[in-house]
Amino acid sequence: MATPSPVPQAYLPFEQGLKEIDELIRKLEDWARTNSMDVSEELNGHREKREELLRRIYQNLTAWDRIQVSRHTQRPQTRDYIAHICTDFVELHGDRSFSDDNAIVTGLATVGEHRLMLIGQHKGRDVHERSFCNFGMPQPEGYRKALWKMRLAEKFKIPVLCLIDTKGAAPDLGAEERGQSQAIAYNLQVMSGLKVPILCIVIGEGGSGGALSIGVGDRLLIQENAYFSVISPEGCASILWKDSDRKADAAEALRITAPELKNLGVVDEIIPEPLGGAHRDPKGAAEMLKATIDRCLKELNAKPLDVLLEERYQRLRSMGKYQEAALAAAAGT
Amino acid sequence: MAQQPKRGAGGKEARESKEPAVGPERKRRVQTEGQFIKCPNRSCSQSLFIKDIEKNFHCCKSCGHHFRVGSRRRVEITIDPGTWVELFDHLESIDPLQFKGKRSYLERIKESQEKTGLRDAVICGEARIEGIPLVFCAMDFQFMGGSMGSVVGEKIARAIEHGTKNGWAVVIVCCSGGARMDEGVLSLMQMAKTSAAIERHNAAGLAYITVLSDPTMAGVSASYAFLADVIIGEPKAMIGFAGARVIEQTIRKKLPEGFQTAEFLLKHGQIDMVVPRSEMRGTLAKILRYATVQRQETPRTAKARSPKPSGSSARAKAEPVPELVGAASGGSAKKSRRR
Ligand SMILES: [Zn+2]
Description:
heterodimer; A: alpha/beta; 2-enoyl-CoA Hydratase, Chain A, domain 1; eight-stranded mixed sheet; 9 strands; globular; B: 2-enoyl-CoA Hydratase, Chain A, domain 1; two-stranded antiparallel ribbon; 42% helix; 16% strand; disordered N terminus; binds zinc ion
């Protein structure tokens, strides 16, 4: 049988041509079914056209387009990936001192042959789930929960897998009262020296300190249509031009797409997504993610601990671009 | 979330940035009007003679209002005279993103350099406080709001590593609106870089103290500012992660009086103490003396000062460790056993 027609979805502004073809294909399929007619030849023609259009659109995404893909409501999130790639998941809750932050999911997980500690930010999909997860914006308890579980991973000598997907830390009175700054900072410090491999992957939004709080490790990977940034494009636009509608310009200026981040040396590897983005084929996206996790963990597990930690330190130490003035002056003469 | 210098972090900062600069560049003014400023504390509003403010640790004589202090002046009023040896001053910002903002990043850097005479928003150096050797860093709000880009991150990381290598404490005076947006994600990564350096300094058992001055926000507060063994706030300093205005817009409620002040953080258990600037030097010395009890009584630092670090560590192993250290500290016990 032919591949099933695409599930109805929310189309992004730059995908308009697709909607028409998808609708045409769906109508044709329905008509063929009700009339028991064979229209496979015609359907295949439309499907080919659709794929070509999809390829053309997704090969020419602007930075702002990609950010919209990263925020797509049907894009797979941490709990979706857990369902797809983990053969076992024992969820562990709480920060042992104040509450259980549902913006960060933590637990013992099995991915392929790897037993690991999974720590992932989860934004939620419907209204109810989104408010339950605080839209994926962690409170200090979330960072401390993550830290507690990382310490456990260190004790059990199992690697840590972090899935990053957040707009950023919660801008909240209570979060400030309970030491948001300290909680984020302490995660950065501890992760830089944690004595087990840490693999970090941005699977959607990588917003600022909230994202970095579980983003320090041996490798930082990013899915093709995810982003990682010091500030949201909207926030940047409103600071620069006092106009958040210029978010597309800001997205461009900040260089926050996967290929730009690779160029800057901030991410080590880009994980491909199925054609048309992870939201069109969550299962396919999960398979690609799983294969990469498996390969990277094998590589990291093979390193002696002192080598692993020294390489992690040097990786973090190399972040940033600047010049040494004396050398620059010498070169100028 | 990055705080854009001057306007990112809410009303308080915007108000205070209107304060006239009090610094050496003001000294030359001859007109009487330039020699006096009004205390910005509204319940005080005293007319203050600028020279008096400078003499009084840049504080209002009448109400104690703390004016912002430039990094050079901060060094002068905090460390022992004549002990400053500046480090890593040759590092300079480039425009790694070719950032297409409102104005060219390099132009803004140049402008700040001319205005302040600094190369970037932090200065680092070897220093002594009441004789105790340490690495001292001071941030400067006048330089692009004290924002942290690659240069600030690199200088802080190198300064901490310098402390680790020499067995010295590190003291950092923070003053920053947060990460420098013009360097995008590279400025975000400075948080990870500096925190990693602190992890190693900490593992070496060395003391680390931060002084959080007004303002200490966002990327700086969520990295090296809050990783110290002892965290000291300056009175009324604005300290926090998210800007007050962003929080107000999100929670749609008025924030309590004094939100994100040093006193607020003290009350909520986030910092160790609030210390007026006039007592800062003495307080730092007092804490450092506890942290360096053993180090002070052995020639270890003198040895570590040898220009060749590899040679010096080899020598340290060969030479007998004084009895006092072996008996008092767990770390050196191994060495004593060896001899
Ligand atoms: Zn006053």
